Amino acid sequence: MLKIENLTVGYSASVPVLHDVSISIGAGQFISVVGPNGAGKTTLFKAISGTLTPSSGRLSFEGEDISSLEPSRRPHLGIAHVPEGRQVFPSMTVLENLEMGAVPKAGRDEWATNLERIYTWFPVLKERAGQYAGTLSGGQQQMLAIGRGLASSPKLIMLDEPSMGLAPSIADFVFEKLMEIRRDLGLAILLVEQRVAEALQFADRGYVLETGRIVLEGDGDTLMADDRIRQAYLGM
Ligand code: ATP
């Protein structure tokens, strides 16, 4: 579905942040990218959603080369990006934030069904539909950001550190919901996370990104059992 081949990208052409990164995501797969602060996880998402242009390498989605496709066109292909730090619109209501996600045609066509589903996964969003998003707790804002992404009817949803700044019990709730959403919709998930155990536990495949390079990859269970991961990330 999404194929990233030998991607090199950065904020200026002379200083790449990601070097020769290759990642592949099949339809319905759950892929995790883990790594420390500053490894380049957010940069990877910016390249996929098109706000950064690769200096070399190729990005394709469902067989189509999207390396130079306008960022604003990418959600229309079925790629949703739930950004780091949620970035909900604080002075818009919960419902208006969800509507902002439903810009692609598929999202508009399926709006009523999507809204009902989003409210079933996250009933608190229904209860607070008329409330300004800025007044929600961090966990509720994260649910809203995920809901906004789902409102576009994506085939692939990319989540940038959804657990960031959340109490462990709320982060666990968010991970459980992601699994439920994936079961219900069969959509592909690309997750970047610093919470390595949670991210790898359920992943079909995981990648470890360190200083802009993939240093390890494998299925989730294999990575969880890898001595390097256990020592560096799981404190064992
Ligand atoms: P974190 O978990 O802290 O968000 P990350 O793995 O997502 O880390 P990135 O945010 O992708 O890492 O940052 C990777 C590198 O790119 C870092 O060295 C960072 O300083 C640099 N960087 C990030 N944003 C910019 C920017 N706007 N301009 C220049 N360099 C940047």
TrEMBL record:
Checking InterPro entries in the record gives: AAA+_ATPase, ABC_transporter-like_ATP-bd, ABC_transporter-like_CS, BCAA_Transport_ATP-bd_LivF, P-loop_NTPase
What is the superkingdom listed in this entry's lineage?
Bacteria
A Gene Ontology MF term for this entry?
Answer: ATP binding
**Start and end of every ABC transporter domain?**
2-236
Q: Does the keyword DNA damage apply?
A: no
Q: Keyword NADP on this protein?
A: no
| GO BP annotations listed | L-amino acid transport
> SUPFAM superfamilies recorded for this chain?
P-loop containing nucleoside triphosphate hydrolases (SSF52540)
Record key words, sorted: Amino-acid transport, ATP-binding, Nucleotide-binding, Transport
**What PROSITE patterns does the record tag this protein with?**
ABC_TRANSPORTER_1, ABC_TRANSPORTER_2
Which PANTHER family does the annotation name? HIGH-AFFINITY BRANCHED-CHAIN AMINO ACID TRANSPORT ATP-BINDING PROTEIN LIVF (PTHR43820)
- Give the family from UniProt: Belongs to the ABC transporter superfamily.
Name assigned to this protein: LIV-I protein F
Q: Which organism is it from?
A: Martelella mediterranea DSM 17316
Task: Name the gene that codes for it.
Answer: livF_9
